[in-house]
Design goal:
It is a single chain. Helices cover about 60% and strands about 15% of the residues. With about 200 residues, it is α+β, with helices and mostly antiparallel strands. Strands 1-4-5 form a three-stranded antiparallel beta sheet. The protein has a three-stranded mixed beta sheet with strand order 2-6-3, with no helix packed on it. A hairpin with a 2-residue loop joins strand 4 and strand 5. The longest helix has about 50 residues. The protein starts with a helix and ends with a strand.
Length: about 200
């Protein structure tokens, strides 16, 4: 019987504890003075102005970030295109002296009259030029009698002559090459000068 009485009393104790744990409103937490409608409107207008300024700042920041992203995309695209078009530049610059030496060998071998050797060198030279052409490599036009162009030619000497007009190419010492219209190496030439 005591157990039933205790069981009936127990919920009573828990209810007392719950009442003790519930926050009680104190007089200090209540605002002592209410804002007038004009003060409340002024307060809300200030808050609205602050939020409008924050929204403008965020919009400006978004526009800047978007412009930065567009610039990054354009720059990455340009760099990718540069890499695709001119990524082989360094290896081609290493191959060009081989082409030069093959051309020199052809000049000297033909003088010696070794037809089989000359034909072999000529074929190798042709195959190498064909392979370079596939990558967009072509020789700079700098034949004798054409005008000297400092964008494509490098003057190694001046030759006084009345046979050629001044500032024309008299002799080409080494061919120049372009890679997709970009200069890889200028032609080394001698240029005509008027006689003194």
């Amino acid at each position: 019987m005591h157990k039933q009485h205790d069981a009936q009393r127990k919920p009573h104790k828990d209810a007392d504890v719950m009442e003790e744990n519930q926050p009680q409103e104190t007089v200090a937490e209540q605002p002592t003075t209410e804002l007038t409608p004009e003060e409340r409107i002024s307060q809300l207008e200030e808050a609205l102005c602050a939020k409008e300024q924050e929204a403008r700042d965020n919009w400006d920041k978004l526009l800047r970030e978007r412009a930065d992203l567009e610039n990054y995309k354009k720059r990455a695209s340009r760099e990718k295109e540069e890499l695709l078009n001119y990524g082989v530049k360094s290896i081609i610059e290493e191959v060009l002296p081989v082409v030069d030496n093959l051309e020199r060998a052809l000049e000297h071998a033909s003088e010696d009259g070794l037809p089989a050797l000359v034909e072999g060198i000529r074929m190798t030279h042709g195959m190498l030029l064909t392979a370079l052409k596939k990558y967009g490599v072509c020789a700079v036009e700098g034949t004798c009698g054409t005008l000297f162009d400092p964008a494509f030619h490098q003057a190694m000497s001046q030759v006084e002559t009345a046979d050629q007009a001044p500032n024309t190419i008299v002799q080409e010492f080494q061919k120049g090459y372009l890679l997709k219209e970009r200069l890889l190496r200028p032609s080394m030439v001698s240029v005509a000068a008027p006689p003194k």
